[in-house]
Structure prediction request, 192 residues.
Amino acid sequence: VPPRRLWRAYRVPLGFCVTGALPLLVQLGGERGLLSLAPDGPAQAGQLLLRTSAASLGVLLFAFTTPLSDLLPRLTRAGVPPAVTDVALVTYRITFLLLDTLAQVRQAQAARLGHTTRAAAWRSLAGQGATVFLRAFSRAARMQDGLAGRGYDGTLRVLVTGAPVSRRFVTGSVLLLAALAVATLVLERQLL
Prediction:
């Protein structure tokens, strides 16, 4: 994953992590007045920030490196009900189709000068919503007809190809995780 792309995606969760850690730095009331620095606040804030940041980065790296179409069939084998994974897969696939449709409609409206004034922009937005809804509804009906024609029995079967396992990659990953665990424990002890 390119570091710049990861950083762009990480900025928003990092903002939430920092926002969640800041209140731990202060305390309300007590001997020092209405608002004062909490005695163990920096240590608690640091722990929370490290843990939430690491969790956010882990989720982002997983999302960037694991295709959902590969993950969902494996979730079914792990015990997630097939109906849940089917809905997630259809939602995932249709989301990109709807976004593409939205971009096409918006481009067509812009070409017809549909965004020149505020009133025209509102009118175009309403038309855009209606058009995307109708196209999505039509696409869903065609998808249902197609599934019925293929003998849909309640589950979408997807061929999952086996991924080759690289010993070097697995060894490097285990070493990296061990180094991160040691670094976390060392930093946590230093903060306490």
Observations:
- The longest strand covers residues 26-28.
- The chain is about 75% helix and 5% strand.
